[in-house]
Amino acid sequence: MGAYVHAHESGELAVEMMKEIFGIHGVPEIVHADRGTSMTSKTVAVLLADLEVTRSHSRPRVSNDNPYSESWLKSLKFAPVFPERFGSLADARTFIASFVDGYNHTHCHTGIGLNTPADVHYGLAAGKAIERAKTLATARQKNPERFATHKDPKILALPDAVWINKPPEKTKTKQAA
């Protein structure tokens, strides 16, 4: 997850952000966004068309169409450290940079197997699961009375795939014999 803080929004700023992110993480096949003026601007449309990226937009007034962004915003706004007001644009940028770093690199998420987004993005989650299993096995061996069962605790698995709008399954047609 990433965030930029500006005094205003515009298509030009959105393009600047996308170019930076695409330069770091590669050009995606699809960009899904809300219907804000920046994301529906001609500037963004031209960039994505030039890069052969499919644009996808939420339906008007339907927050469920972008659940990941909405969930992140709720985490941000309800964080105990979220200030009532920012003293300046620089204060807002500093706060957001710190929050994003913690969200991506230290906060473990149940939906991705108690991993951080960075662990999943950079392919470290499988190794972390092995480390957790070893730690739990060592703890069980040293203090078996602390465990209610004789089975090792389950390590949460990563989901195979996540979707905003999952495409329908293609049905197989029977061929005539």
Describe the structure in your own words.
This protein has 177 residues and is mainly alpha-helical. Among the domains are: 60 residues, 2-Layer Sandwich (Nucleotidyltransferase, domain 5), CATH 3.30.420; 47 residues, no CATH class. It has a two-stranded parallel ribbon. 7% of the residues are buried.
List the SSEs and their pairings:
Blueprint lengths: L10 H15 L4 E4 L8 H9 L3 E4 L9 H11 L11 H17 L11 H5 L3 H18 L35
Parallel strand pairs: 1-2
Helix pairs in contact: 1-2
Task: Name the features.
Nucleotidyltransferase, domain 5, two-stranded parallel sheet, single chain, 2 strands, 177 residues, 5% strand, mainly alpha, globular
Compute the average pLDDT. 88
Do you know the CATH topology of the domain at 6-65?
A: Nucleotidyltransferase, domain 5
Q: Helix and strand string, N-terminal first?
A: HEHEHHHH
Apparent shape: globular
Largest sheet, strands/sense/barrel: 2 strands, parallel
Tell me the Rg in angstroms.
Answer: 21 Å
Helix content: 40-55%
CATH architectural designation of the domain at 6-65: 2-Layer Sandwich
- The N- to C-terminal Cα distance equals 52 Å
- The low-confidence runs, each spanning 5 or more residues with pLDDT under 50, are none
Q: Based on helices, strands and strand pairing, what is the structural class?
A: mainly alpha
The total count of strands amounts to 2
Q: Class of the domain at 6-65 in CATH?
A: Alpha Beta
Quick description:
The chain has helices at 11-25, 42-50, 67-77, 89-105, 117-121, 125-142; strands at 30-33, 54-57. With 177 residues, it is mostly helical. Among the domains are: 6-65, Ribonuclease H-like superfamily/Ribonuclease H (Nucleotidyltransferase, domain 5); 108-154, no CATH class.
